Protein 1
Amino acid sequence: MKRRDFIKASAVGAAAACGPEVALARPNLEPAENAVGMLFDSTLCVGCKACVSMCKEVNDMPPVIEGNNNTWDSARDLSPQTLNVIKVYKNGTAESKDKEIDGFCFEKRSCMHCVDPGCVSVCPVTAMRKDPVTGIVTYHADVCIGCRNCMVGCPYNVPQFEYEEAFGQIYKCQMCNQPGVERINNGQMTGCAEACPTGATLFGSRKELLKEAKRRLAMKEGEIYNFPRGDISKPDNYHEKAIPAYQQHIWGEKEAGGTNVMHISAIPFDKLGMPPLKERSSVSIAEGVQHGIYSYLALPAIALAGLSFVVRRNADHDDEGDDS
Amino acid sequence: MSAYKPLGGKFFTIPFIFFLVIFLISLYFIAERFIMGMGSVSNLNGGYAWGIWVVYDVVIGTAFACGGYAVAFSVYVFNKGKYHPLVRPAILTSLLGYALGGFGAFFDMGRWWQFYNIFLPGNWNFNSVLLEVGLCVALYIMVLMIEFSPVVLEKIGSKNLLKKLNKAMFFFIALGLVLPTMHQSSLGTLLIAMGHKVHPLWQTLHFQPLLAVISALTMGFSIVVFEASFSVVGFNRASETPLLKGLGKVIVGLLVAFLVTRFGLLILQGNISYLFKGDMASLLYVTETILFIVPIVILVSPERRANGGKLMMAAIAMLLAGALYRFNAFLVTLDPGPGYTYFPSVPEIMVTLGVISLEILVFMILVKTLPVLHREKHS
């Protein structure tokens, strides 16, 4: 008898634990119809860091000063003081731009505004939200408890917690649309796209930017192309330049469900520090498992009922034993 | 019930003073953390947002505290509720382990002054695994308090309330079995969303909750095996303890299930090559596997089950196996990407040691003042 009880109880437990294997996980989230985003073309970036400077101006953040150099912002990576940074790739003699061997190039780091954002999925208190219209991922300090699961759940290590403050918060790029700035709502473009002199950072709708990226990748190396600058729907101006030897890869078209900020480059993205992501987003798997176990709390309720029954009967035996 | 008695005796023994000193040192750093910010005491950074305060104090500490969970399973489900002297000390260590896990989570919260936000339903994000962990752990701490409350009621002599409580206790015992199954498996689910940052030897995706709950039970059942080793030695018994006779098979079954699932997944998910890389990760994986095999070898044979020394070895291996599995998955082999490294700072380590010391101090005080331990010898 007792063995059978145990087997029954463990079957309930096993069902609760194995639920996810049977349950279907949800697919990746889809891009918002009118999502806004940016296209970063690494081959156009000259490393001037005007975008870094403009970002600090828009977000009212101080420059990062290294040593006695007060000439430019020396930020090396994202931090609570830096929401957007330009990094350099160098190999060997670093002679020529956009060459993987003995070459160099520049790469932008800022929030990718994921279509299926990890930070939004993992946040227990809904302090990370994705705007259903613009697709912009926003942060809300008023409810944030500082658990930092968003940092852990972000494939790109974008959210940054202010460890040095007693009352710190998370910082991340909110595409210049946070309350008090609201550049996108006011019909403006992001600060970094506006400041970029070469159009390496281009602002626009995700759809248009994806088309533009595909157009560039489809052209032959050496063909002359008129590269737009600023907002792709109303470019400030254009400049003519030969098409470089692009990698046939638009970062953010599909990675982990895609991103609203996309990158193209002449150098493979793993060399530029992009993470090894698959097309399926990790959080879509995690949510599938979680909802498989907890949908309507049915499995826990069944387990509780079964175990209550077994424990009660067994505990009754105990009472009888005590009384006699 | 009168078989439980307070130990009595003086508080300020040498071990007590030793743990008190460590705890006082940790208080200094905890104060510094609240005044100066986490950066002044910890080595946490943008890539490693969770250090030993989360991974040891919460992820491993609560699994160490699964003794109450495993003992309740053994006694109330498996052993037909037959009275067992292990229940009260196991519930107390679980209560302390979880309460201090909660305390650890609190001082690790970057925005601790708004910690209450997780309890406001309007904020809940039901997609968040951490929400389930947080709420479920909070609820379980309350259930453990209720499960422990007869000890206090006995002490103050509140017989009426005790009787009423005992009538409803079956429900809280059942809750005390369901809730740890829930949040201990969710601690594994947390790893899924961490995606590529988790080393392929530990990233089993859909199977994370199953492996996590088995690792929690492994650590919880080690208490039962520890106790068995003491009673084999202490009472000079030539044969295995009756409880272990049946339970031993269950524990072996769990451990085998863990190893088979994990190794099978390495092949199915195409990650087997990482095992033969000969790097630190593969070495750690092999170490964990050996730690899981040791208790299987010991518990599978009736002769070895009757050997106190061997049982002690099995219990220690089970504790280390579960702890190392979690530590490796969450921290040691975690790779958030280029540019980030983490090793805990001295203050971080001191705070964690202080939390462990506080747990021991409170345990020492409570067993001396409350009827927790079973004083009678087995007849």
Protein 2
Amino acid sequence: MVGKTRPTPDNEPTLIARAQRGDLDSFNVLIQFYQNAAFSLAYHILNDSDSAADAAQEAFINAYRRLNGFRGENFRAWLMRIVANQCYDALRRIKRQQTISVSDLPDAEYDDGPALVDSGDTPEEYAERRQLAQAVQDCISALPEDQRIVLVMSDIEGLEYAAIADSAQVALGTVKSRLSRARAAVRDCLQGFRELLPSAYRLISDES
Amino acid sequence: MNSTDLELLSAYLDGMLTAEEISAVEARLAEETALRRELESLRATVALLGDLPDLQSPRDLRLTRAMVQPYSQRRPPIALFSALSAAAAFILIAVGVIGLTSSQLPAPDSAQVAFAATETPAFTATITVDATLATESDPAVESLSLEIAAGNDATDAISSSQRAAETSQALPMAAAATDSALVMQAPAEMNDLMPELTEGAPPAPELQIMQAFGGAAADSADTQGSAALNYAAEAEVAAPASAPPGQESGMAAGSIAAMPVPQGTMPPPTASPMATQPPPTRALTATVTASATHTSTPTDTATNTLTPSATPTSEPTAEPPVMREETTAEAPAETVFVILIMAGVLLLAATVAVYLLRRTR
């Protein structure tokens, strides 16, 4: 199963119910909890910090407005689909403008990318993790757009096929094939960063 | 690794295969090392992606109240608002100007006249004039007189002149007025001559309103009151005089009784200003001329003249005894129009100011 168990705020149902009654403060508590995840998803897809933050922000606004349409399913999944949809819009906008290609963005203003959320590791560990994250990001952003979105939604965010198919407006079989090709491509891409990979991954890759 | 196998393995990892497909894949995995290796590399990749730490959002994404306002509230359509407001202002001004203009100009066709003939020999004309329109016009009376003339029957009028006169005494003939309508009942006994009815008697409440306005209000109010009474008085005088059927058959007696005055002091007929008017033909001709104005606006004079006369020369309207009388609601109407214009101008100015302020912000 793709889905991972993700932490949720303790009082998430209460916060959602209050937000549905127009309590913006309660919704902001939810945003505080999910904003890094939303930004990450958008960044993996858009590969640009500003665009990703804008998309995530817009997604939260849309989510707040549509909150009464939330019927108690997985809130995180519901939210992330909205983020993904916002990213689709952003990609379309970027394509229309034709001023920049998504993959060109890091070159235009290259930095180390967004910081990782603090997980209490040592500076060395953090640097390693960050390098790995950047490597993965590079491989993801090298993917064709349609594959990239499916991969990010499935393997990074943990959404199910059906939700992805619905969000991408494609058939379930299309999700399946795009995902398999994206996984294989990322795997092959990551061979170039072997020294960064966890030992377990290295062992497996060495066999091939 | 062909794409079919890749898809199978990928879906296998996700548990998205049917039971049959799972069996088939697992059977192959037990035999094919390359397939097994492929599966493990994919599994590791998926695990790696799933373990990626979240990235730190470069900015706080919490929402402010302004962000979640509906678009219409977030950016009020100031242009639309201004347009509506300006339109309202122009309507106010237009109504005011038109109202003011037409209240100072004759509007002959604007009076609505309803005519009703009673069963009695005396004709009772019920004239309903819209108050605002009534104030506007003196020529309007021409249409009134036409209406009344329609009911004439010469012979009947002559033979019943006495009864008519009595009726004119007995009947409570009143100018009953509402806020917007002036109703005048004028029992008119007629010969083949047409009485000219040129004015409605003013209603009492509006007399008082009139008193509140206008510089010469007090005078005209007094005049009005006595004038109204004079109508009745003269009618009394006229009626017996017209009683002999044969007498001056070409003439008819007309009378108007108006009861607009609360204080019912009945002046003697001779006290009437009209008494000073040279009567064309003795008492048979009841000339009732009531003109009401703002003394400042003579053009607004409306003359109510019930003039039965045998000869054209007897028409008193040539030199009416000018009894100025405030017709209904004239001054308030003008004031209202002026207020409308001022309100419109103010609204327009406010609209422009608000629009400019919003634009510059």
